[in-house]
């Protein structure tokens, strides 16, 4: 295995030597100032590597030698708290004075403490009933920001020939804008019902839950004529787990503990462009 170590700040030579020894690797090659690749790393040393990296705020990834980004055909991303820094529904709720209440439900759902995503979404959306739909535009214009490294990661993926899928338990209002802005190939999300310029408190059509996210990844792979093993899936919450399990490589980004434990790779400190260094 190769072991890729990444840092937000430049990696010192002391880190290089210590990590090669911890991983029982043969040598370290510099990827850039903030990352190294250790050849012949021993997966059995993972616990020691993880402890060291956690202490020094480094991200690590064990990856098969020779695996490259162009080996994949699709990168699939969650939206809220993954591609972007906010949870859109929490910010929408702020415009009717209910952010704390809605955010508490969101957090519990993402941690996996609320098993039924459909129920959690229905409860949250119901609290938005009567809100002027202009609040959605304000959230997009005033609060939506990309996660660190998001645009660079997408540019690198496209350059390597990968298609892009944004699949979200959030809302089509935002995924449609991001599709146009970022040149994404595919999107899937929930549709907020709006009548006479007001949110009704309902979602139209099928709710995009964990099963639908996984199905969307499979269907998109079928459309592209590739196996799901050639997909990369990036997420942060428990409703991303089934989608991530379908993919050949799963990435937990600033994720909840249950997601970090299940993912192939976790980025707790570096940006989404850390994917480009891993592969």
Automatic annotation (TrEMBL):
Entry keyword Ribonucleoprotein: no
Matches recorded under InterPro entries: DUF4072 (IPR025138), HAD-like_SerB (IPR050582), HAD-like_sf (IPR036412), HAD_sf (IPR023214), PSP (IPR004469)
GO molecular function, a single term: hydrolase activity
Residues passing through the membrane, by range: none
Keyword annotations of the record: Amino-acid biosynthesis, Hydrolase, Magnesium, Metal-binding, Serine biosynthesis
Keyword Amino-acid biosynthesis: yes
Pfam families xrefs: DUF4072, HAD
Cofactors that this protein relies on: Mg(2+)
This enzyme's EC code(s): 3.1.3.3
DUF4072 domain boundaries: 3-49
Catalysed reaction equations from the record: O-phospho-D-serine + H2O = D-serine + phosphate; O-phospho-L-serine + H2O = L-serine + phosphate
Pathway annotation: Amino-acid biosynthesis; L-serine biosynthesis; L-serine from 3-phospho-D-glycerate: step 3/3
Signal peptide location: none
Uppermost EC category: hydrolase
Family as reported in the entry's similarity comment: Belongs to the HAD-like hydrolase superfamily. SerB family.
Entry-linked PANTHER family: PHOSPHOSERINE PHOSPHATASE
NCBIfam families, per the entry: HAD-SF-IB (TIGR01488), serB (TIGR00338)
Identification of the protein by name: Phosphoserine phosphatase
Organism placement in taxonomy: Bacteria, Pseudomonadati, Pseudomonadota, Betaproteobacteria, Burkholderiales
């Amino acid at each position: 295995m190769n072991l890729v170590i990444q840092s937000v700040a430049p990696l010192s030579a002391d880190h290089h030597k210590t990590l090669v020894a911890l991983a029982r690797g043969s040598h370290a090659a510099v990827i850039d100032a903030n990352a190294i690749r250790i050849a012949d790393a021993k997966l059995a040393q993972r616990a020691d590597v993880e402890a060291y990296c956690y202490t020094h705020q480094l991200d690590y990834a064990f990856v098969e030698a020779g695996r490259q980004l162009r080996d994949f055909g699709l990168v699939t991303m969650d939206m809220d708290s993954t591609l972007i820094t906010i949870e859109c529904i929490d910010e929408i709720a702020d415009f009717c004075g209910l952010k704390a209440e809605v955010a508490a439900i969101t957090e519990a759902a993402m941690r996996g403490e609320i098993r039924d995503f459909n129920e959690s979404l229905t409860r949250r959306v119901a609290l938005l009933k009567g809100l002027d739909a202009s609040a959605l535009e304000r959230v997009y214009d005033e609060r939506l920001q990309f996660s660190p490294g998001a645009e660079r990661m997408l540019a690198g993926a496209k350059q390597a020939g990968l298609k892009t899928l944004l699949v979200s338990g959030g809302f089509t209002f935002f995924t449609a804008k991001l599709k146009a802005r970022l040149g994404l190939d595919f999107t899937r999300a929930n549709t907020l019902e709006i009548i006479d310029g007001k949110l009704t408190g309902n979602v139209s059509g099928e709710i995009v839950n964990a099963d639908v996210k996984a199905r969307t990844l499979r269907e998109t792979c079928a459309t592209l004529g590739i196996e799901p093993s050639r997909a990369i899936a990036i997420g942060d919450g428990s409703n991303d787990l089934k989608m991530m399990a379908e993919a050949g490589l799963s990435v937990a980004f600033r994720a909840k503990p249950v997601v970090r434990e299940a993912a192939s790779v976790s980025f707790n400190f570096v940006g989404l462009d850390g994917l480009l260094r891993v592969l």
